[in-house]
Amino acid sequence: MRREEIIRRLKAYFEPRERFRIVILFGSVARGDIKRESDVDLAVLAEPALSLRELLRLMGELEDLCGRRADVVQLQDLCEDKPAVAFEVTREGIPLKIVDREEWLRLRERIWHHYLDTEYLRRLNWRYFKEALRRRRAGASSALTQQPQAA
């Protein structure tokens, strides 16, 4: 199914469902980089928030609708748990439904501030990870050069 058809179907699905205040398509489908294994990635703001059961049911309905796997994340969780992903959703995502533009702009602003406020921590974490990886590789290569002598 082509990107335009997926977008049309998703808009038609969410439009009458008042519980969904914000729906954003992101990922490979939003970028137009659809491959056979691509899934449909959506970020939603529902009032009230979806339970796990409701989230799983929604993903199943969307998979049937789009003919491919669907991953749905709740924006309120994404903002705090994964600020880099939330930032990408707001930066590159395609809004499919925005009930209140002011609410969307406030949420975007909160996500961007949180992303920028935590950027230093992500860089620090990345630096520690690379250093640990470098030490591990150095340890592995020295172990290879110190092979036991034949008796």
Task: Give keywords.
Beta Polymerase, domain 2; 6 helices; Nucleotidyltransferase domain-containing protein; 151 residues; alpha+beta
Please provide a written account of the structure.
- By secondary structure, the protein is α+β, with helices and mostly antiparallel strands.
- The chain has one domain: 2-Layer Sandwich (Beta Polymerase, domain 2), CATH 3.30.460.10.
- Helices cover 62% and strands 16% of the residues.
- It contains six helices and four strands; from the N terminus they run H-E-H-E-H-E-H-H-E-H.
- The protein has helices at 3-14, 28-31, 52-66, 75-81, 83-92, 101-145, and strands at 20-26, 40-46, 70-74, 94-98.
- The chain has a four-stranded mixed sheet, with helices on both faces.
- Strand 2, helix 3 and strand 3 (70-74) form a beta-alpha-beta unit.
- Helix 4 (75-81) packs across helix 5 and helix 5 crosses helix 6 (101-145).
- The longest helix is centred in the C-terminal third of the chain and has 45 residues, at 101-145.
- It is extended, with a radius of gyration of 21 Å.
- The model has no long low-confidence stretch (mean pLDDT 90).
- Residues 10-98 form the Polymerase beta nucleotidyltransferase domain.
- This is Nucleotidyltransferase domain-containing protein.
